[in-house]
């Protein structure tokens, strides 16, 4: 979708990608729990569908459905008006936020990142995530949305058994390290110049 959106030669594909991203942004304007059509919009643009284990079979959203929703809605927001990539394999979300922190004069980035990472409430997480995505978009900083979705799947799990808590702690630890490495990456690039 990103390649089609940024294409300058295939106007039909570009228009389709723009329309799909606009629909995803529209889906992201409502709370997921209150809008079954939002989930349908997101699931319909997946290139490879969720597996039978990942798709819900009851009245509750699965962690995979939530992760795909938040990831694709964030991607659509990140691509709004973009002229460069929003998805870049190998660059973690937290690393991109660290880079943003390093190049920004704002002191609110780290507290927003921490609040998003530590939030146990999905609505609160979504608010902080939207603000960070907006800042990343404005700074032209991409990250790996596939890895982001995998991590979100762990962070949005509602069960609180010891195994889930350990997985959550591992993501939080990795993101903390990635944030720090993002700040160091940009500082070392500045001193090399």
TrEMBL record:
InterPro entries: CRISPR-assoc_prot_Cse2, Cse2_sf. This is CRISPR-associated protein. It comes from Corynebacterium casei UCMA 3821.
